[in-house]
């Protein structure tokens, strides 16, 4: 049986990818990459074309295999997929550390840096060489063998901790719900929020005799309660559950607690940074960034806080006064979005819900694309028939005025069970020029909310 993850001729065939494909595909590609690396290192001398280009092809192939796996684990998470992802993650981490600590490979790159060819390379090519050498040092290539092994073990554990942390947050988000059976407790909620809560209750078998509204910690449900629900006890319950997810507090205290994971992550990051000669993880983090020191970053943040705090305090005092005038004794965190919306309605005689019909998602997306087209002179167009992981997901192409394809992206806007909270961009496919081919692959991104 062919493995869809090993077919990299086009976009990922999401509907064909199953959890049982992940480990075999990863094992096969890692073995092929290791074999190819051994061949490259047998060369008597190295040039940018003979070393860097093949290595970039290897990296791109691995990225294209793992990218849909990582993405599906974030947006359509389930137990079989999670298990397959977690089985593959240590192999990927081992491979990355192995490559970063490969002294022969480091010496091959160093020979390019020290050779006459380096001066003839383009600025971008020299940057690739310099960054590769930097990354070897950041992976511990200079360390004694015992410390290399310790660094590798730390990297493996940090990878595991990061995955478990994300799983706990997702599981905690999905574990808590509240079902309201008294319609009076829905006062203030918008029609759309009530309809969504009723649909959720119906799916759970909790809508009986025309009653039953289920609220969750998925952000659309959470923000609707926090903004519009007049029932203060309901707001407090939802806020508390949301704010204490995956912790040792709140209604599910300890069930998905990330406290120990955070402590261990901090300790291991510090130890890894010390192994590499950095004073702290913050110093290690800045090795690839523009800021010069942790103190510079902290100074920037403190300056930002100093400049913004007076306005924030003024707004909070104003909101507190407004809430007290409405009869509230003390403004609590679960009151802030509710009274902020009330104050907005008083000032402008319109609510966010009244604006909603004028800004449906298709119209907003089209307007956003028009702005992009005006600013950059490109055209964004929907592409139908592309294989996606969920019916909500859409696919778009970006073309220049001559019709040339410049990039593509998936767009997945809506919260749902099994999908990680937040908004992020991730790489599906990098812009890449394969060795021995004339064509350049256009980049493809995931845009997720």
Note the topology.
Elements (H helix, E strand, L loop, with lengths): L18 H23 L6 H28 L3 H22 L2 H12 L8 H16 L6 H31 L1 E4 L10 H13 L9 E4 L2 H10 L3 H12 L15 H17 L5 H5 L8 H32 L10 H13 L3 H4 L5 H16 L2 E4 L11 E6 L5 E8 L11 E6 L2 E2 L6 E2 L2 E5 L1
Parallel strand pairs: 5-9
Antiparallel strand pairs: 1-2, 3-4, 4-5, 6-9, 7-8
Helix pairs in contact: 1-2, 1-3, 3-6, 4-5, 6-10, 8-13
Briefly characterize the structure.
The chain is of the alpha+beta class. The chain contains 15 helices and nine strands. Among the domains are: 177-243, no CATH class; 293-333 and 343-358, no CATH class; 361-448, Collagenase (Catalytic Domain).
Characterization of the model:
The chain is α+β, with helices and mostly antiparallel strands and 449 residues long. Among the domains are: 177-243, no CATH class; 293-333 and 343-358, no CATH class; 361-448, Collagenase (Catalytic Domain) (3-Layer(aba) Sandwich), CATH 3.40.390. The protein has helices spanning 19-41, 48-75, 79-100, 103-114, 123-138, 145-175, 191-203, 219-228, 232-243, 259-275, 281-285, 294-325, 336-348, 352-355, 361-376; strands at residues 177-180, 213-216, 379-382, 394-399, 405-412, 424-429, 432-433, 440-441, 444-448. A 5-stranded mixed β-sheet has the order 3-4-5-9-6. A two-stranded antiparallel ribbon has the order 1-2. Helices cover 57% and strands 9% of the residues. It is globular. Strand 4 and strand 5 (405-412) form a beta hairpin. It contains 15 helices and 9 strands. The mean pLDDT is 96. The two termini are 35 Å apart.
């Amino acid at each position: 049986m062919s493995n869809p993850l090993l077919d990299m001729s086009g976009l990922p065939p999401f509907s064909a990818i199953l959890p049982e494909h992940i480990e075999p595909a990863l094992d096969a590609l890692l073995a092929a990459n290791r074999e190819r690396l051994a061949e490259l290192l047998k060369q008597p001398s190295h040039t940018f074309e003979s070393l860097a280009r093949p290595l970039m092809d290897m990296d791109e192939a691995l990225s294209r295999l793992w990218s849909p796996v990582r993405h599906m684990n974030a947006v359509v998470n389930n137990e079989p997929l999670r298990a397959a992802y977690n089985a593959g993650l240590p192999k990927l981490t081992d491979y990355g550390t192995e490559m970063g600590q490969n002294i022969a490979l480091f010496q091959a790159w160093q020979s390019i840096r020290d050779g006459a060819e380096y001066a003839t390379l383009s600025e971008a090519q020299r940057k690739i060489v310099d960054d590769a050498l930097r990354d070897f040092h950041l992976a511990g290539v200079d360390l004694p063998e015992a410390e290399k092994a310790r660094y590798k073990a730390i990297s493996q554990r940090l990878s595991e901790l990061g995955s478990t942390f994300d799983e706990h947050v997702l599981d905690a988000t999905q574990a808590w719900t509240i079902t309201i059976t008294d319609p009076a407790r829905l006062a203030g909620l918008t029609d759309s929020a009530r309809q969504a809560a009723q649909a959720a209750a119906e799916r759970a078998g909790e809508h009986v005799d025309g009653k039953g509204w289920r609220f969750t910690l998925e952000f659309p449900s959470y923000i609707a309660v926090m903004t519009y629900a007049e029932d203060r006890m309901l707001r407090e319950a939802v806020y508390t559950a949301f704010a204490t997810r995956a912790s040792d507090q709140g209604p599910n205290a300890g069930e998905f607690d990330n406290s120990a994971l955070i402590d261990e992550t901090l300790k291991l990051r510090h130890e890894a940074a010390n192994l590499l000669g950095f004073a702290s993880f913050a110093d290690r983090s800045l090795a690839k960034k523009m800021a010069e020191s942790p103190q510079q970053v902290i100074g920037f943040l403190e300056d930002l806080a100093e400049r913004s705090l007076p306005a924030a305090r003024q707004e909070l005092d104003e909101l507190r006064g407004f809430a007290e005038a409405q009869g509230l004794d003390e403004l609590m965190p679960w009151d802030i979005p509710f009274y902020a919306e009330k104050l907005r309605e008083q000032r402008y005689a319109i609510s966010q819900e009244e604006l909603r019909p004028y800004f449906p998602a298709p119209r907003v997306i089209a307007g956003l694309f028009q702005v992009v087209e005006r600013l950059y002179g490109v055209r964004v167009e929907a592409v139908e028939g592309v294989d996606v992981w969920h019916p909500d997901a859409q696919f778009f192409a970006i073309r220049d005025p001559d019709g040339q394809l410049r990039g593509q992206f998936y767009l997945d806007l809506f919260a749902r069970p099994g999908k990680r909270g937040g908004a992020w961009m991730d790489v599906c496919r990098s812009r890449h020029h394969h060795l021995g081919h004339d064509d350049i692959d256009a980049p493809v991104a995931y845009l997720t909310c």
